[in-house]
Amino acid sequence: MSIPTVINAAGRAVMTELNGKPAIPFRGVGKYRPSGNRYGPPIPSCTDFPPDGNKVVTTLEEALLRCGIRDGMTISTHHHLRDGDLISNRIFEIASVMGVRDLVWFPSASFPCNEPVIKYLEDGTINRIEGSMNGPLGRFVSEGRMKGTAVLRSHGGRVQAIQDGEVKIDIAVLVAPSSDSFGNARGTGGNSACGVLGYAKADAMYADKVIVVTDNLVDIPCLPMEIEGNYVDYVVVVDKIGIPEKIVSGTTQITKSPDRLLIAELTAAFLEKSGILKDNVRMQAGAGGTSLAIGVFIHEILRKKGWKSKFGFGGSTRYMVEMLEQGQMEYILDAQVFDLESVESVTRNPKHVSYPVFNAYNYHSKGNLTCMMDIMILGATEVDLNFNGNVVTHSDGYLLHGIGGWQNCLHARNVIIPLPLFRDRIPVIVDEVTTLCGPGELIDVVITERGIAINPLRKDLIESVRNSGLPLTTIEKLKEEAERICGKPSKPVFDEKIVAAIKWVDGTIIDTVRKIKK
Amino acid sequence: MSIPTVINAAGRAVMTELNGKPAIPFRGVGKYRPSGNRYGPPIPSCTDFPPDGNKVVTTLEEALLRCGIRDGMTISTHHHLRDGDLISNRIFEIASVMGVRDLVWFPSASFPCNEPVIKYLEDGTINRIEGSMNGPLGRFVSEGRMKGTAVLRSHGGRVQAIQDGEVKIDIAVLVAPSSDSFGNARGTGGNSACGVLGYAKADAMYADKVIVVTDNLVDIPCLPMEIEGNYVDYVVVVDKIGIPEKIVSGTTQITKSPDRLLIAELTAAFLEKSGILKDNVRMQAGAGGTSLAIGVFIHEILRKKGWKSKFGFGGSTRYMVEMLEQGQMEYILDAQVFDLESVESVTRNPKHVSYPVFNAYNYHSKGNLTCMMDIMILGATEVDLNFNGNVVTHSDGYLLHGIGGWQNCLHARNVIIPLPLFRDRIPVIVDEVTTLCGPGELIDVVITERGIAINPLRKDLIESVRNSGLPLTTIEKLKEEAERICGKPSKPVFDEKIVAAIKWVDGTIIDTVRKIKK
Prior knowledge:
The structure is a homodimer.
Chain A: E1 5-7, E2 13-15, E3 17-18, E4 21-22, E5 56-57, H1 60-66, E6 74-77, H2 88-98, E7 103-107, H3 117-122, E8 126-129, H4 135-142, E9 150-152, H5 155-163, E10 171-176, E11 178-179, E12 185-186, H6 201-206, E13 209-214, E14 234-237, H7 244-247, H8 258-274, E15 282-284, H9 289-305, E16 309-313, H10 318-326, E17 329-334, H11 340-348, E18 352-354, H12 357-360, E19 375-377, E20 382-384, E21 389-390, H13 406-409, E22 415-418, E23 422-423, E24 426-427, E25 429-430, E26 445-448, E27 451-454, H14 459-464, E28 472-473, H15 475-486, E29 494-503, E30 509-516
Parallel strand pairs in A: 5-14, 6-7, 6-10, 7-8, 9-29, 10-13, 13-14, 15-16, 15-19, 16-17, 17-18, 19-22, 20-25, 22-26, 27-28
Antiparallel strand pairs in A: 1-2, 3-4, 11-12, 20-21, 23-24, 26-27, 29-30
C-alpha cells in the first residue's frame, strides 16, 4: 500500500498522514504558524508519592510495570551515554519478554550500540522509531523492514513535538550518572559521567511517567538538578548504566587529512577576511575532525587579535575548553559533551554551563539562541546546486544519520558548510539532494578543498570577500569539478514505499525517504 | 448578596463558587485528588520574534499594549523586590490611565509599598487581588471594599494553581535585577540585586505573555538564567526597578526580647533532646527574630556535636550563610533571599543555590521537598486547642498576612511553632482559630515561654522527651494560662459577606474570611 502524497513548498512529495495521524506538509521557512496550546501532562499529587521522598524500586522491569507499560505506548530515552548506553536496549528486551507490542521508541538519538533493537522491531515489540536512524538501524529502515514509518526530527524539532503534544511520551526512561532517591539527577559524578543531560529535560517535563535509572545513588539533594525530581515517578538503581570509554571518547581528534586541513584553513581564512569572525563572536561548530581543526584555527586568530568569543555553543570538546581556559571564550553553553576534558570542565567551571534545549533550539518558542549565532559550522552528506542540504541519507539512498541540531543551526546568521568535494570518490555536491533536510536559502557558504561557493542570496558576503584573494567559485563549478574527477554518480533507485518522514523545525514534513529498490 | 456556602471537611463554611468559577471545598489532608492535565500556554513561533533576539521595547506601557492588555485580564508579578518594588504599582497606574477595567492582580506576595494599589481597586482598574493581603490592603479587603473576592494561596498553592490552569496568567510582568535583551534574567547584579527569582519561574513558564523589566541590561547570555528568555515576549529597560535598601534589609536581626529568647532556647533544647536535631538534618526556619535566634542556637549545637545540616531551605539569612561558610551546613537551597549577606552568598557560593518552587512546595507534583524536611520552624497568628493554625488574620478578624510557604511547610516531618503566649496582651492560643489556614493534624509542637505542648497525635515525640526535664504541658493549659493573664479575648464580629477565600495546598477551599462588622 502506498501512502498518498502532495507536493510541499520545497517541491517534495510528502504524505498528509503519518502513522495514522494528520501531517502538515512543509510550507516554506518561517511560513507555518502553529495554533493551539502546549501539551500539559496529567496533574499528579503528592498524595500518591512516598512522603519520605524515596522513589527507588528494585528493577527497571518493576518500574515499567508500575508505569503501566502496555501496547502502543511511546517510550522515550536520551542519548547522553552515546555509544556506551546500556539501558535503552534493555527496555525493549523487558517489554518483549512481557509480550508488549507496537511500542514507539522515541530516542533523542540512537547509536551503533542500539543495533540489538532490530530484534524488537522484528518481533513486533517496537512498531517504529521516531528519532535518528543510523548504521544498521538505518539499513533496516531503508530496506522497508520497519512496521511503522520512521520520523526524523532535529533536536529542536523533538522538543517542539513534545511541547506541542505532537508526540505524547507515555514513559520516559532517563539514565543519569548521578541521582538521589527523589529523582533529582545530573550528568556528572559516578563511573558513567556524561557531563550534562540537556536532552533529557523535555522528556522529564512532558512525559506522563518518568523513570530515572542510575548507577550512582547520591544523597538528597543531587545538585545541579538537571532533571528535577518533582517530575520523576520512579528511580531504579543498577550496577552500570554505561560503558565509560564509549560514553565520552578519550580524546576527540583533529583531522590529519591534508585535504580536510586545507578546508579548515580556508574556512578560518574566510571567517577572518569576511569580517564574520570578530570580537565577542558567538560561534558553534561540531565535533568532527574538520570542525575541530577549524576551531583550533579560529582560536589562533582570536588570540592573535586579542579578541574573545562571547560564547561557544556545545557539544563541547577539549578545544573549546582550551579557548575557555586560555581566555579566548567567555562561556561554553552546552547541551551535550563530547570528551573527558569537557566533562571535567562542566563539572568544575562555572563559565561552562548546561544550557536548555528549549532556549537554544526550539522553533516554537519566543525566539531562540540559534538565530543569534554569528558563526555556524555544519556538515552535510550532500549539498545541491540550490544550496539545499542533506544530512540523513547518503547518495546511495540509505538512511545514515540523524538530523541532530543541524536544522536548528541553519537559523544562525552565517551558516558555513565546509566539506570535501567527494567522499570515497562519490561527489558531495550534486544536482539535487537525495533527501532535503535544509532549504538552500538558509545555507550561506560551502567551502571545499577546491574553492569557496557563496550562496548568491548573500550578496553582502560576496561583497565582503571580493578582493580577499580567497579561492572563490560557484556551486556549479564545484559540482562540475567533482564530476570531472569522479564521474557523474548513479542515482539510487527507490521503491514507492515511504519508510521515513523528515520533519522541519516547525513540525511540518519537508521530505520523505523511500525504500531502496534492490 | 451573600454567596451560598457548604461545610467542608474541616467544619468551615466555604463557598462552592469563587469569582464566578466553581470551587472545591477542602476534603481533608491528602484526600482530594486532582484530575485532568496541566495547563499549556499558547504555542509561540520564532517567526513572530526578532531574529536578532532583541526584544527591548521603550516603555512598560508599550510592552503592555503589545501584550494586548484589556479588561478582565490577570496580571502577575513576583515579590522578590519586597518592600522596595517600584514596578507593580506602575502597571496599574498605566492600566488605569488606559481605562482598562477589572484586572486581577496575581502577585506572589504584596508588601506595604503596594498601598497605592488601593486607588486602582477603588477606581475599578483592579477587580481583585489573588495573593497576600497585608497592612492597608488587608484592611481594605476586611472592610468589604474590594469588588471581587480575594483569594489567598500558599507559595506552593500559587504554583499549583498556575500549572493546573486554575489561574490563567494573561500577562506576567517580571522585574529582574539583570536581564539580557532576549529576556534571560537573574536575581543578581546591578543596583537592585535580590539574590534569586524563584517565584518568577512559574509565571514565565505558564503566562501567555511575559514582560521582563530590568534596570541592568547585560550582554547575552545573562547567566545563571533564572528566567529563560524563550518564555519572554518583551524586555523593558527602566532607570530603577527598586529601592535597594528596601529590597533586602541591611541586616536581619535576632530578637532581643527575653521572652522570645527563652522561646528560642526552649525550641533548640526540644530539638536536641527529642533527637530531631541530628547529623545531616534537613531544616527550615523563617527570618523573624525568634526564628533567627533558634537558628543561632541550632548552629551552636551542631558545632558542639561536630554535626552538619545536610541543607537548609531559605529564604536565606546571614545566619544560614554563617552555617554554610563555617561548615555546619552543606547546602543552602533558596527560593528567596532576605539580606545582603545572602545575596552576596548566592552570587558567589556554588553551595548556595536557587531552588525551584515546583520542586520545593508544589503539592500537585510527584512528591516535593517539604515532605522530606526534618525540622520546620513556623510562626502563626493563632493556634487553637486542636492545634489548628492561623497565619492570615489577627484575633481582631482583620486580614494581616499572606500565607507564604506556611501551608506547604506544614508537610514537613516535624512542624514546630514557637510563639509567645500572648501579643499586646491578646492570647495567641485560642479556643478556635479565627481563620483556619492549617489543620492541627499537621502541627506537631507549640513552644511558648511558659511551656511546650506536643500534639497528642505525636505519641513518638511525647515519648522522646518524657524524662528530658523540658517544661512540658498541654495546649489546654497554655490557653488557660494565657487567659488567666490577659482575660478571655472578645471575638471579632463579622458580617455575612465573604471577602476572601483561603486555599489549601491542593486548590480546595479550607476557609473564608468575612467582612468586619463595624
